[in-house]
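Late entry, evening session. Most of the bench is empty. Finally got around to the prediction I had been postponing all week. Sequence below, unchanged from the version circulated by S.P.
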Amino acid sequence: MGVRISNRYQGTHTRETYLPADLKNETFESQELFRRAEVNIQRRNFDKAKELLGEALKISPDNPFYLSYYGLCAGMLGDLTEGEQLCRKAEKLLPVSPIILVNHGRILLEQGFRKEARELFSRAYELDDTNSAAALELSGMGVRRQPVISFLPRNNLFNKVFGKFRHRLFGYKKLGWKKF
């Protein structure tokens, strides 16, 4: 059974063509743990998801998807350096996976590296232009707020000063997958 990993390539790949050959320890149990972890991530329950992914990584320690999501959970729980290291490792194992690139970009965005995060989201979108996670992150990053005084140009002194004041009062609202 083939899996389509990119819209640019019209054919399908089998698991063996896009996953490293050393992932022979992947079992039904690890896949079930991963599925449950994904549900917890969507519910923003990163503690439970990290625990489930830790168990899945004990079974299959070099699975790039497990590493990527484990890094995302670690980053969202505050350990951004560990999260970035795990996402980089997952990206080295499987550089053609859009979701791994998106998870790495989310960690970089949390660290404040907007330019690098945008590059990863763009690469993920180029690999698969139907990847809604990459499109959502790119659209969230590209939105600018309206000028405070709309009839004045954006570079007017009053708009600059009041914009900085508004930013200090309300902060930077991150659009995208994290909705409260």
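Two things to note before I forget:
Residues 1-24, 175-180 have pLDDT under 50 and may be disordered.
The domain at 15-142 is CATH 1.25.40.10 (Serine Threonine Protein Phosphatase 5, Tetratricopeptide repeat).
Will write this up properly tomorrow.
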